[in-house]
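Exam review. A common question shows you a sequence with its structure tokens and asks you to describe the fold in words. Practice with the pair below. Do the first one on your own.
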Amino acid sequence: MSKPHVIVGLSGGVDSSVTALLLKQQGYHVTGLFMKNWEDDDTDEYCSSKQDLIDAVSVADKIGIDIEAVNFSEEYKERVFTNFLQEYQAGRTPNPDILCNAEIKFKAFLDHAMSLGADLIATGHYAQVRENPIQPGNYQLLKADDGSKDQSYFLSRLNQAQLSKTLFPLGTYLKREVREIAREHGLINAEKKDSTGICFIGERPFQEFLQRYLPRQPGIMRTPEGKVVGEHEGLMYYTLGQRQGLKIGGSRDSNGEPWFVAAKHMASNELIVVQGHDHPLLKSDGLKAGQLHWISGEQPRTNWVYAAKTRYRQPDAPCEVDAIDDEEVTIRFGQHQWAITPGQSVVVYESNVCLGGGIINGAI
């Protein structure tokens, strides 16, 4: 009987490299696939794709697997980046990593892998997938054991077909253990810094990058009481809760606390700012979200205590699903949530099982 063929998304980073190594050790027939998904100004200053490919090839050679490269930049631009720009232009703050996972890493990549004869795909995400123990044939997405690295939030729009074909070998490992494995096996990227920034685009000055696609539309920056305190460059360049980059100095009648973005008035092109992290306009008891996706195919129950995140680096917050239909969900929290942001994703959990979620329409 032939060994299952797993194609691993090899990014050149330590996580995907150790993923490929572990699967080979477990007896799978492993092939690496390097995805190039961005070509605009692909320079060494911000995009590391050239070096990443070199590292991925080096790792594949070291652990003894074949590797090929594929270019998904057209799919990325069409399925992810166009939506990214549309959302910013509408005054919302999208999360491209979530859409990128659903459309590129687990759709374009999965389809390509299957066309190459793969049985399964695998990535270096910190998450887990299992068949539902009380509902055979239905797959669940679980948090990783390493809570500080858990990436289930970014995988919350995956569906049953995608999860049924996916392995997450790092789900039971701590990050320090992954680096130790890489060191023990002499992988070139054992100490390589984790990538951050926009999915596939890399780290770069964000406002400068966005201005190339969405030209400046300056307007006034004012307090809720109407006092003008500065000028903004364009509402699309700011997000709720933002503190850095507002360029507002102190004034004699100010309380000396830092300024935060509290609201965007699209019709009048005004940016509303407040002072103090705990300003009431930055706190909300709940939210409404649309574009819903539930991993199991079943909606969560109302009047049942769940937990949810409205941004990645946030502790789980106890909540209830107050109302739900096919179009929108209303979620209420037990405690005030800070700077709930339209365009971001709310992701709902029951214990360590990720149920899915939706795109935030607004706070309530």
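Now try the second one, then compare your answer with the model answer below.
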Amino acid sequence: MLKLATVFSGIGAIEQALKRMNMEYEIEFACDNGDIDIDIDYKTELNKIKQMGSVEEKRVYANNIYKQKSRKTNFVEISYKANYKINNNNFFYDVKLLDGTDFKNKIDLFVGGSPCQSFSVIGSRGGFEDARGTLFYEYARLVREIEPKVFIYENVYGVLTHDKGNTWKVMQNIFNKLGYYYKWQILNAKDYGIPQGRRRLYVIGFKNKSDYDKFEFPKPIKLKYTMQDFLIDNTKEGNLVSKNSKLIITEKKGEKVDEKYFLSDKLKKYVLSPGTKNFMHPEAEINLPIARALLSTQGNTHRASVNNYVTTDGKIRALTERETHRLMGFPDDYKIVVSKAQAYKQSGNSIVVDVLIAILNNIYGGK
């Protein structure tokens, strides 16, 4: 059984990928703070945690810090636990308070992404010290402490040019020092079965060189569906399922869309306006066959030049929460148990499941 660990776990894209592939796996730990910010001395607290005796003592201590410092609810934890089998003792709140040595050589697959952050760079020597204090540093630290057999790292493709290329330069230097054989590539969701133009950087690292030598990034496949196929007015909830790891529509029959998703005349005028040349892309297209990259802020009202709007019965509307999850590769049996705003945010922050399935097939030979 595959031993899985994730950080920045979100709504469980890799878990969903393994589920859709019918691969047996066990979650050793997941970690996500639900975007709750707290003000603490992380270095001091992590040092305290590393002196503690058991994994459970460490987890309780770290999670209690959040309860003491913030009254906010971790909505990511709610969504994650509603959809995946995980022991309550295996969900952690903060990557910066996680002691990876507790899981050394116990993890087959370690997965996560992190927000793009700039690092200081001194010539070509950028390494762990240059990245210290960033979330990427924490991901790399955990790879070094855990020593998983395979890791998958995901980030926005813009990280390659961020800070004039310095960010990627430091990240590569760190990957080089982890002792792993790794490959990286930009993959687009629309090339792997999902009608969404979403380009992301994927870095795949292997402890074993023979596994590295055998791995190739998946080749693009022909797109079968459009964004319109995934709309609930064309495919009602419950009719988008996963079969043999592929998303299929069981019946092309729609349902009525709630009025709350439709735009008022005032909002419609704003959404369809191009904005200033410095604000957003001028093209305000709707009803695209391939969706624009979903945003974590899609619950807000954005212009059609960056967000996705469609027409139902001649009226313009926003995508529903279910539709945004479909466009990330989550079939309809995924339970949406949080508010509309939180569901939008969580789907926009996720990794595309079908891209991960294509990667996993090439790592594990489709087993």
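Model answer, second protein: The radius of gyration is 21 Å. The mean pLDDT is 92. Full marks require stating both points clearly.
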